[in-house]
Design brief:
The structure is a single chain. The protein is α/β, with parallel strands linked by helices and 383 residues long. It has two domains: 6-40 and 279-382, Alpha-Beta Complex (Aspartate Aminotransferase, domain 1), CATH 3.90.1150; 57-275, 3-Layer(aba) Sandwich (Aspartate Aminotransferase, domain 2), CATH 3.40.640. Helices cover 43% and strands 14% of the residues. It is built from 13 helices and twelve strands. The protein has helices at residues 6-9, 15-23, 43-54, 67-79, 95-107, 122-130, 149-155, 178-191, 245-259, 264-275, 277-304, 328-338, 366-382, and strands at residues 30-31, 90-93, 113-118, 134-139, 160-166, 194-198, 221-226, 239-242, 316-320, 341-342, 344-345, 356-360. Helix 4 runs parallel beside helix 10. The N and C termini lie far apart (48 Å).
């Protein structure tokens, strides 16, 4: 048998996928595990894609992406993210996952160190290990999930090549403090490493405004975002990257080699999403719906006995299950079997988070959210 590549052999199915596989066998399941919106893509975006197909937008584009979209995205970055962006500093990607992949493939290699503040999405670690880097997990502060800046600073050395952050954070919903991000940006410049900032949830924020690290300076910062979450376009696979022209030009060859370009007609649809007032109203309306769901779910979880912070963004509740004498995978499996409610074990998001589970309130109708909380409450009362 042909031996699989060493980079691939390190990749294991995440706890998210393990739970999804188990959930397939459960009848009457309420799925609070998946991070995908229940809403349909805005109609103007769908119609723009159809029209683009009819008009022949079915070929390769420039690898950087169509100019009109890069102009619109640079405008968005300046106006919303407060980043000094130009179209030449934008790269259209096949989702944020590709952006993470090509950033690490371009800049990290065996012997380098990649720092990941946790909890964080499992793909961060998977891709960093795939390129051969040594991963150092630095847990955020339990309580408010803020960055532990002293621990981060202590973890940086001459081998540090990159750090991966997610703002707002999946799974905690935390928006990191601007003073911490400014300090982190200064550290990246002074100690010469990259900060790769996944900001896919940047529009899904509630009482607190979104914070982009690159607004404090774009040198050594790669900002990633896309359309999957805010515009309910998870299956369209379209995202974008911003950095300095030098970094974008260094990453462009691997992007070109891997995908050539994001699909033309989907770029046209993404342009409609950025510029269309109806689509932006959709983003505002669905964010308000997520806020209502957040308030309901977090209140119920706390009443039930699963302590949960109020998320500042995204659409997850990260709940402490340490009182129930089970690790996170055991608790998630127990809840799936007895309550028929799917959640994600905290160990999926880092080794220090095995006493937490994540509940998503994105892909569940309000009536099912109520039923899910009732089921969980009954199970907890019997424990």
């Amino acid at each position: 048998m042909v031996k699989v590549a060493s980079g691939v052999s390190k990749i294991k199915l995440s706890g998210i996928e393990e739970m999804n596989e188990l959930a397939k066998k459960v009848e009457g399941l309420i799925n609070m595990g998946q991070g995908k919106p229940v809403f349909k893509t805005p109609l103007p975006v769908i119609n723009a894609a159809k029209k683009a197909l009819d008009e022949g937008h079915t070929k390769y584009t420039l690898s950087r992406g169509i100019e009109e979209l890069r102009v619109a995205l640079a405008n968005k970055m300046r106006e919303y993210n407060k980043i000094d962006a130009t179209p030449e500093e934008m790269l259209v990607t096949v989702g944020v996952s590709e952006g993470i992949s090509i950033s690490l493939l371009s800049y990290a290699e065996r012997g380098d160190k990649v720092i990941i503040p946790t909890p964080s999405h499992p793909f961060f670690r998977i891709m960093a290990e795939f390129v051969g880097a040594d991963v150092v997990e630095v847990p955020c502060k339990k309580g408010d999930f803020s960055l532990d800046m002293e621990a981060i600073e202590d973890s940086i050395d001459d081998r540090t090549k990159a750090m991966l952050i997610n703002v707002p954070n999946n799974p905690t919903g935390k928006i990191y403090d601007g003073r911490q991000l400014k300090r982190l940006q200064n550290m990246a410049v002074n100690q010469d490493f990259l900060v790769i900032s996944d900001e896919i949830y940047d529009y899904i924020v509630f009482e607190k405004k979104h914070e982009s690290i690159a607004k404090y300076g774009k040198e050594n910062i790669i900002t990633l975002s896309g359309f999957s979450k805010a515009y309910s376009m998870t299956g369209w696979r379209i995202g974008y990257m911003h950095s300095t022209e030098e970094i974008i030009n260094n990453i462009l060859p691997i992007h070109n080699s891997m995908v050539v370009s994001a699909p033309d007609f989907i770029q046209v649809a993404a342009l409609k999403a950025v510029n269309d007032e109806t689509s932006m109203n959709f983003v505002k309306a669905t964010t308000e719906e997520y806020r209502k769901r957040r308030d309901f779910v977090v209140k119920r979880l706390n009443e039930i006995g699963l302590p949960s912070n109020l998320p500042e963004g995204a659409y997850y509740a990260f709940s402490d299950v340490s009182s129930y004498r089970m690790d996170s995978l055991g608790f998630a499996k127990f809840l799936l079997k007895v309550a028929k409610v799917l959640c994600v074990p905290g160990i999926s998001f880092g080794k220090d988070w095995d006493s937490y589970v994540r509940f998503s309130f994105a892909d569940v109708p309000q009536s099912d959210l109520s039923e899910a909380m009732d089921r969980i409450e009954k199970v907890i009362k019997r424990m």
